[in-house]
Design goal:
Blueprint lengths: L9 H18 L2 E3 L2 H26 L2 H30 L2 E7 L5 E7 L6 E8 L4 E7 L12 H17 L4
Length: about 170
């Protein structure tokens, strides 16, 4: 069993629920895909490579020799940082899980959010059929009083939401 969390800290609750999603969806025959994570890593590593190149150039050569290169590298760093910010804000948004059903091939995306000092955790479930479902999870439904996540209850809740999503008509 995992260690208990402070159920009055919504950020701890959110972290615990987000970390349990791959296991829950794995039990529901979904395989996690890492498309967004891979893209974010590529952008992040590119930023690190540009910064490292700038540092190495500055250490190896004289200041006056590398000014044109440093200008280009700083510009490139700035552009990559803007791309990274855009990716986090508008592409990834608050997506915490993406997966594909191993039996049907259906894709699912889960976005989560919370409002500080409210005992609800907001879920947006979207599938490849264009259906979307916004639901709120009451924290006390899946955590017991000492602060342990009741994974079976969370599994049943997610399963119910997926069935509701499948039964939903296209919007």
């Amino acid at each position: 069993m995992s260690k208990p969390i402070n159920v009055y800290s919504i950020s701890e609750v959110a972290l615990s629920l987000d970390e349990s999603l791959p296991d829950i969806f794995g039990r529901l025959d979904y395989k996690q895909t890492f498309r967004l994570i891979d893209q974010k890593l590529i952008i992040g590593y590119s930023i690190a490579i540009v910064a490292a190149t700038s540092f190495i150039l500055d250490k190896k050569f004289g200041h006056n020799e590398v000014i044109p290169y440093q200008t280009a590298l700083v510009s490139f760093y700035f552009i990559l940082s803007i791309i990274f910010w855009y990716f986090k804000k508008y592409v990834e948004k608050s997506t915490v899980y993406e997966g594909t059903n191993t039996k049907t091939g259906e894709k699912i995306s889960v976005k989560t959010s919370y409002v500080e000092a409210e005992p609800f955790y907001n879920f947006v479930l979207s599938n490849s059929k264009g259906k979307s479902l916004n639901v709120k999870l009451e924290i006390n439904k899946v955590f017991n009083e000492p602060g342990f996540l009741q994974t079976n209850l969370f599994y049943e809740w997610i399963n119910t939401q997926l069935q509701t999503l499948d039964a939903k008509k296209n919007e």
